[in-house]
Amino acid sequence: MVEEEPELSRDQMFDILSSSRRRYTLYYLRQQKEPVQLTDLAEELAAWENDTTVEALSSQARKRVYVSLYQTHAPKLQEAGLITYDADTGEIALREDAPEVEPFVSDGDGESRWYRYYAAVALLNALLLLGAIVGVPPLSAVSPIIIGVVVMSSFLALSIAHAVSRRRGNNGKSFDIGEP
Fold this sequence. Notes:
single chain, mainly alpha, Arc Repressor Mutant, subunit A, 2 domains, 3-stranded antiparallel β-sheet, 3 strands, 58% helix, elongated
């Protein structure tokens, strides 16, 4: 009989994600297509934590992270149904049917693109104003009040779109750990 994983409550998820090692583990595993070795994961995490490269790590730093992953973090993530971990082979992977952690573990990509939208609207509005000032034929006939209304309306529309996007869950609930 196949045992279903219990659904994690918000409190359980926050308890699991209270450790930066577990957050970084999920972040790293989310980027991998295939299972990875626990030793490789430990090296990556140790490098992130020590702000260095894997090659420059001391054996002590590698061992410290490996032991905590082996004894504490991997078993806790497996018990929560977020990863598969085989202690005999050392293979670890994010479960395909893992409870949704995306709202809690995010690299912030969804939010970072909004500055581009605001910049594009600002550029288009600047070109519109410049065209009216210089006297480009179709724009020179338009009232400055109309141009002002267009500028303000474009930013208002973009702000509303941004708010709606956040409210629908596109990073509105994110717990952004950033890229290690």
